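Running this now, will post back.
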Amino acid sequence: MKKTFIVIGLSDAQEPWLDPKALDAISKAKVFSGGKRHHEIMKGLLPKDYKWIDITVPLAKVFEQYRETFNSQFIVVFASGDPLFFGFANTILREMPDAEIQLFPSFNSLQTLAHRILMPYQDMRIVSLTGRPWHEFDKALIERAPKMGVLTDNKVHTPNSIAQRMLEYGYDQYIMWVGEHLGNPSEERITKLSLSEAAQQSFGSPNCLILQAENTRPKVFGIPDEQFAILEGRPKMITKAPIRLLSLQALDLYQKHTFWDIGFCTGSVSIEAKLQFPHLQIVSFEVREEGKELMQINSQRFGTPGITTIIGDFLTQDLKSLPRPDAVFIGGHNGQLSLMLERIKQLLLPGGCVVFNSVSQESQQTFKQEASKQGFTLQPSLHIALNDYNPIEIIKATL
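Update: finished.
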């Protein structure tokens, strides 16, 4: 029998309006599936002797039941809102690409919230934090998205935790609308708040939110050195702005996905990279304990959430759980440049690159010799002298 899913989108309404064709499919079906909330809403409309398959993790077991069912029957699946909008229809397409899908969508929750507050939403940036990391939300913040629709969860990414994160990194120019239990007349609530207000409240679930900027936060290209918090008594321990930007150019970060900054000190290279290339996953290493506080202070000061900070000797760290880099900057090596390049070679993705700023003839020679020994290809380097500082050689090696 042909594998067919009838996928019906629901709001949170206890008596949802359904397309007549969807109602006809329900009357003829024997097997239904959805979340527990969907079951509560729909059980009064289901025929006698129906079978219900709960959509729970692990999803592999759910699809195993689907495949067994297809021996004799099509399946009606209930999902939230528009099932193609971060919804379960996408999962079906991925797991069973040969199946046929008939779709009856409802408005998704962000559309419904926009309708309630009469907000045009064609220009709204959509971010899902439902079971996902902060990365895409951080990216939207750093890119100064003027209007964002955010899908939340009821554990980590709640409206108040989102507001707290925005305030922590200085993105206080937004107003937040929170929609709770949208479509349920007895429980629906829509609230307009400042981020400070939202950070102090709790909200009913399910919910979603819309963020709208009231003004624009300035964004700089080349953060002035004097604006960084630095190591006490070590004013020169920072990669200066012109060198920083030339180093980022050499790393070709538009084309990269994961960037490792080894020996970050103040965090200036990582923070500049995150501001200019917010799509990057950035992991920053520093042997000094003070580096943790400096990175926190400077990340908050310049609005760059999402940088992973690791304190300790790079050569002794367990790196297996980290995403492999395709770009690496060596800002400090503690006399261990040869061993460092050897380890980087083991982890760097094919086509990746390493950039090193040499301040001495000895370190320049060591880098070039060891890079060649490890199978890297040396690129033309750049020699630059800045004010009264020692000349620097920006060296790049590719794999």
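The mean pLDDT is 93. More later if anyone needs it.
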